[in-house]
């Protein structure tokens, strides 16, 4: 494969990925909530002038939650496509996928607390 075909292929793949991200944000309420939280946390980061390391941690947490939320949505869509009627095993799979999002959200909330609680407490000193 030539270098130009490789680059063109990667550009097309990026286009499909961006299309998928836009569809996800436009159609999924859970991602819309996460995006709103991400915006709020970004504004808070600028307000409190958090450090570069804190920005890295916050950005990774936002990316992990939103990415995992996308994978959860994908797992649910595939499960519903394969077996549209209620099935105990499909429900179990969907619960596990949602559980992964919750675990990441809890860990991210802890990271957010570690970052922001000192800044918030400093406002009252």
UniProtKB/TrEMBL annotation:
Cofactors required: Mg(2+)
Keyword field: ATP-binding, Cell membrane, Kinase, Lipid biosynthesis, Lipid metabolism, Magnesium, Membrane, Metal-binding, Nucleotide-binding, Phospholipid biosynthesis, Phospholipid metabolism, Transferase, Transmembrane, Transmembrane helix
Entry's cofactor comment: Mn(2+), Zn(2+), Cd(2+) and Co(2+) support activity to lesser extents.
Binding site for substrate: 69
Annotated Gene Ontology cellular component terms: plasma membrane
Main localization category: membrane
Active site per UniProt: 69 (proton acceptor)
Gene3D superfamilies: 1.10.287.3610
Compartments in which it is found: Cell membrane
Coiled coil, from the record: none
Sequence positions that bind a divalent metal cation: 28, 76
Transmembrane segments: 29-49, 96-121
Residues that coordinate or bind ATP: 16, 28, 76, 94-95
GO biological-process terms attached to the record: phospholipid biosynthetic process
GO terms for MF: ATP binding; kinase activity; metal ion binding
UniProt record similarity statement: Belongs to the bacterial diacylglycerol kinase family.
Name of protein: Diacylglycerol kinase (ATP)
């Amino acid at each position: 494969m030539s270098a130009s075909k490789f680059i063109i292929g990667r550009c097309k793949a990026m286009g499909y990925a961006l299309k998928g991200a836009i569809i996800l944000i436009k159609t999924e309420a859970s991602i819309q909530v996460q995006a709103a939280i991400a915006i709020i946390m970004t504004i808070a980061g600028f307000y409190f002038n958090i450090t570069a390391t804190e920005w890295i941690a916050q950005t990774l947490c936002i990316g992990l939650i939103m990415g995992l939320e996308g994978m959860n949505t994908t797992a649910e869509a595939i499960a519903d496509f394969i077996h549209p009627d209620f099935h105990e095993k499909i429900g179990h799979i969907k619960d596990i996928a949602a559980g992964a999002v919750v675990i990441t959200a809890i860990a991210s909330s802890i990271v957010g607390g570690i970052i922001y609680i000192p800044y918030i407490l400093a406002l009252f000193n």
